[in-house]
Amino acid sequence: MTEIDTMKPAALSVTEVRREIDGRAIVNDASFDVAEGELFVLVGPSGCGKSTLLRVIAGLDLATHGRVLLSDRDVTKEPPDRRKIGLVFQDHALFPHRRIDQNIAFGIAHLDRNERNRRVGELLELVRLDGMAKRYPHELSGGEQQRIALARALAPEPAVVLLDEPFASLDPSLRDDVRSDVVGALRARGAAAVLVTHDRHEALSLGDRIAVMSEGRILQIGQPDEVYERPIDRFVAEFMGDASFLPDPAGGGTVLMARPHDLELLPGGDDVVVDRTYLGAVWQYLVRRPDGT
């Protein structure tokens, strides 16, 4: 996570965006701003509308209601190719019959050859794949292909980069390294980015701010520690991590949330350890309280 200057103008503004299909709201009045250089993460369960919201921002789907602004320019009704947005998908979407340098240069054909070559070389170095220019996509690993997809998205110097589950198809052993390379490249370019994921750990570790979605609505927006430690409701609390819900000793019907690191096991009392799971760095214990919780 990096410090974001909140005084900077918004690179992207989404205001009360609604997307309906057959009369059903897939995205329901979503609003947020993304500052220049900020990595904003949309996180939520499958089918909650986050990828549809990304498609509306990109112009691949049209909003039923609301506005999308890029640096104060209203692009709500503009086609994708006029929005100056970079797109990175889960399946990389590289052209298999084109070399790596040709893939990266696809969106900058209007530049002269020297400038295209300079920018391609600069981006290959940025994603740590210099020397790969003359290879074809099938000659690269999945992680290398994803980094090339990012280089292609960055080549036209877009106002915003949109990433839809970009690491989901990668082997777990590769995922952390590719995440680090992709985020490092975005930081180096100072690009504003919106990343969609269903992985809460990915959201917490990558986002400058995160927005939790459920059933088409954004429930809470905040810095990762804020959303994790001070969730707005029970859904956010449970979705963002393991949580126990305990009655307030003071009464009044209030329920307290506790994360595992908030609790400690001590001998004595009526609580019973009924199970434990080894998770590598820690043990996780399941404890039954006298009231059955």
Describe the structure.
This protein has 293 residues and is an alpha/beta fold. It has two domains: 10-235, 3-Layer(aba) Sandwich (Rossmann fold); 242-288, no CATH class. It has helices spanning 50-58, 100-104, 113-126, 142-154, 172-189, 200-206, 224-229, 234-239, and strands at residues 10-21, 24-35, 39-43, 65-70, 73-74, 85-88, 160-164, 192-197, 209-214, 217-222, 244-247, 255-258, 272-278, 283-288. Strands 6-7-8-3-9-10 form a six-stranded mixed sheet, with helices on both faces. It has a four-stranded antiparallel sheet with strand order 2-1-4-5. Strands 11-12 form a two-stranded antiparallel ribbon. Strand 9 and strand 10 form a beta hairpin. Helix 3 (113-126) crosses helix 4 (142-154) and helix 4 packs parallel to helix 5 (172-189). The longest helix has 18 residues, at 172-189. The radius of gyration is 22 Å and the shape is globular.
